[in-house]
Design brief:
The chain is α+β, with helices and mostly antiparallel strands and 413 residues long. The chain is built from ten helices and 20 strands. Keywords: Plasmid, Signal.
């Protein structure tokens, strides 16, 4: 998980997206900037309930973000929702895998009061449409899906008229089942806060454009570097194009892999291979999985639930392979909704008809049990979901885990 960062830090992490500085007119600094010194914040503009604040830099290269205040005073909550654009074009990149962020989000309390420590917050809906994933907790290691937004998440936020921010009482617990590889959280929503987005898109663009102006950057020329690589997948060479950034790769590849290269005959880094095989997942959701590598055949067979070694390969390979069985967001959201309602106020995993139900902190919904019990559980959600997920007959018998992430469902059996 990438750390929460300011726009300037985000910009510096993506140097390959920058173009040479151009001769541009000096930015029109607001009078409010004269009242603050270097590394202090000034108010640039206001659009409805959304404000644009910038950090003044000594070299006049300010960095800006937009924010609004959200609150539920009856629950003792007053929060700051901040969106920081990354300096890159807001158009979809022509690459198989786009790994670089378009923006980042922080939902944070205004106060340092201890009562905030047990909560976390998430944007859960955009215009009543479920929004995948959870953001960072306010104390300790609670980061999951966020704070970075991919193209789809960024576009959904920019086009929304209203969003829902849900605040959860988080009880961290290490799961004792097959997924005992990271912290799981029981998510107890205490309040849903409706946030109007009127003025957000204007504030977002203002923050992005002013930052670009002060850095002398032409936003129309910010194209990320696209690279191509290949790896052997099930005995066949698979070609992949992906967005590359030197600093991003340094944070997502181990020293050992950088020195010796990934397993196999191809030249794809392990994080690119995993992203290629899990197009519907976020970085946090991918962290639940590892690459299955066949040493004898020298090929990658797919993905498994488990812990990765220094090469992204499963430390303890099992016979359980995970297969993407559909790309229906309807099925994924139905399962996620079932998991959320089933876990409820329980502590740890909940057993429903012999099925272990877990809401993972990354936003993934996980059902584990025998094939018959899993099918029975999905039947309680709806026959359409059951039909979509069981169509390949992958859960007829044996131990099965169903993982609903983003817009797809994966079956590990």
């Amino acid at each position: 998980m990438l750390p929460i960062r300011s726009l300037l830090a985000g910009f510096l992490m993506f140097p390959s997206m920058a173009c040479p500085q151009m001769a541009m007119a000096a930015p029109d600094f607001p009078l409010a900037r004269n009242a603050v010194g270097p590394d202090e914040t000034h108010l640039l503009d206001t659009f409805g309930e959304w404000k644009v604040h910038c950090v003044r830099a000594a070299d006049n290269q300010d960095s800006c973000k937009t924010s609004t205040t959200i609150s539920s005073l009856e629950n003792g909550l007053e929060l700051n929702l901040t969106v920081t654009p990354v300096l890159r074009q807001s158009t979809k990149v022509n690459a198989d895998v786009d790994l670089l962020a378009f923006a980042s989000i922080v939902i944070s309390p205004y106060s340092k009061s201890n009562h905030y420590n047990k909560f976390t917050a998430a944007i859960t809906k955009t215009d009543a449409t479920p929004f995948d994933g959870y953001w960072c907790g306010w104390k300790g290691e609670g980061c999951s899906r966020g704070p970075d937004l991919d193209f789809a998440g960024n576009a959904a936020l920019l086009s929304a008229k209203n969003i829902t921010v849900s605040v959860y009482d988080v009880a961290p617990q290490i799961a004792a089942d097959v997924l005992a590889i990271s912290s799981h959280f029981v998510l107890n929503p205490i309040v849903d806060i409706d946030v109007p987005m009127s003025g957000f898109s204007q504030a977002y663009e203002r923050a992005k454009e002013f930052t670009a102006d002060t850095h002398g950057i032409d936003l129309l020329g910010l194209n990320p570097e696209i690279r191509e690589c290949g790896f052997d997948f099930k005995g066949n060479q698979k070609a992949v194009t992906y967005t590359y950034d030197e600093d991003f790769e340094a944070k997502n590849i181990t020293f050992r892999e950088a020195l010796r290269g990934a397993r196999g005959s191809g030249d794809c880094p392990s994080y690119v291979m995993l992203a290629s095989l899990t197009p519907d997942m976020t970085a946090a959701q991918r962290s639940m999985f590892c690459l299955d590598y066949d040493k004898d055949q020298k090929t990658y067979a797919g993905i498994q639930l488990g812990v990765s070694d220094a090469y992204g390969v499963c430390k303890a390979p099992s016979k359980s392979f995970c297969e993407r069985v559909n790309s229906s967001k309807q099925a994924s959201l139905a399962i996620a909704g079932f998991v959320g309602s089933s876990v409820g106020g329980a502590v740890g995993a909940t057993t429903v008809t012999g099925t272990t139900v877990v809401a993972h902190s990354s936003g993934a919904a996980i059902l584990t049990g025998s094939g018959g019990y899993i099918a029975g559980t999905l039947g309680t959600i709806g026959t359409s979901v059951l039909g979509i997920v069981t169509a390949p007959a992958t859960i007829a018998a044996g131990a099965v885990t169903v993982v609903a992430v983003g817009g797809a469902v994966y079956v590990c059996s």
